[in-house]
Amino acid sequence: MVQIVVKSFSYHFRIILLLAYFCLTKGFFEKEHNRGDVCFCQLMGQVGDCSCSVDTVDHFNNVKVYPRMASLITKEYFRFYKVNLKKDCPFWSDNSRCAMRYCSVEHCLDDAPPVIKSYSSRKHGEDMSVKYLEQYIPGECDTDLDPELGYLNTTISAATMEEFALWQAFDDALDTYCFLPEEDGEAEYVDLLLNPERYTGYRGNSAQRIWHSIYKENCFRPEHSFDYYIQSSKLNGMCLEKRVFYRVISGLHTSINIHLSAKYLLSDIGMMNGGGKWGPNIDEFYRRFSPETTNGEGPEWIRNLYFVYLLEMRALAKAAPYLEQEEYFTGRHDDDSDTKDAVNNLLYVIKSFPEHFNESTMFSGGAQAAKLKEEFSLHFRNISAIMDCVGCDKCKLWGKLQIQGLGTALKILFSGKFDHPSPAPYSLAHLGKKQFQLERNEIVALFNAFGRLSTSIYELEKFRQLMR
């Protein structure tokens, strides 16, 4: 009799445990489902200032663009980026490197600091470096940077270094539209595949200062707007050009935050030997984009990612007649031919997209439009110079690359050089030498920057599935 009672109690106890487990897991999954709905349910309809919808971009990117892009950027022509990471911050005294003993590298991009200061002085009667120094207290030192995560791998074989000289000789034989400051003697090649963009632990005063300067000092803002960002409800009160500027910067910021959330350090076991476990961090993604933690703006920031994606994709489509004729020279004939075929295949797909961003609606008019275009360019140059103030070299590498890629896209869209390409058959004699030519580094940055945006949209779908 006692044995029967014990068995009955044991049976009912197990039933109770199962019911409790079901209730707990049901609540957990409902919570996760609700979190997914919160982050993504508002992400529907049109992108904004574009005619296509978010769903259209999702399908087109994830099915057609991303697989091609992910393969293309691993090819040798696109994996090496020439960059100078040794420049000092031109706007404020920055000591954020003090905690990063493994984080030393080389830089890229602009002759922006001296050019911008002299340009600003001529046009506006002020030195931008002084303007920035007045905004912050110099001498701060962030101590929350992780030296291991920020380590930049500069390993490049001797054979590859010899090939770079051949690449440079090939480029020097071509007429160029402009000379980039990468030729300043301190720039070095970095292997992007050895330095993937992912979470580095870079945060605190230094990181906040970068984005504060970009948003507060260089984005066009409506009157009486004092927030760190511009509320989406106030964007429609700005003209198209100013809205576009803010949305491309916001979209780039969103893309970077998605990369950091998707490639988060989940375990540091084996980090000293090149190990560690990287993967999606749902809590981090939710913190960065949930309406609850972003004053309702998170979904709109994600929408801006789609906007800058469409803008850069339009630049690729517009420059396609030139890019289809580029040699993509590395000295390996078969590889170069495969790279060219892969680029042309990607461009063919991109040109098939039916609802591209329409840049012709911008900067149309007289003197006022010309002045706005000049301000647009100056603001973006300042942002490119701010990249020299990033305290983590790996973050600086990808920041400079993506800013240069976006700047190249804006040049293609608004310089006027690609508005009236020569009639077919296209050739470098017609397109490149006499009209407009992108340097190798600009092409590398353009494709890699678009690849980052494509990857972000692809990662969004993965987060959507994980959170539901």
Automatic annotation (TrEMBL):
Database matches in InterPro entries: Ero1, ERO1-like_sf
Signal peptide: 1-27
Gene Ontology, cellular component aspect: endoplasmic reticulum membrane
Coiled-coil boundaries: none
UniProt keywords, alphabetically: Disulfide bond, Electron transport, Endoplasmic reticulum, FAD, Flavoprotein, Glycoprotein, Membrane, Oxidoreductase, Redox-active center, Signal, Transport
Disulfide bond positions: 98-103, 141-178, 392-395
A Gene Ontology BP annotation from the UniProt entry: protein folding in endoplasmic reticulum
Subcellular localization: Endoplasmic reticulum membrane
Catalytic residues of the enzyme: 392 (nucleophile), 395
Residues where FAD binds: 198, 200, 211, 250, 253, 288
Membrane topology: Peripheral membrane protein
Oligomer status and interactors: May function both as a monomer and a homodimer.
Family to which this protein belongs: Belongs to the EROs family.
Stated name of the protein: Endoplasmic reticulum oxidoreductin-1
Taxonomic source organism: Homalodisca liturata
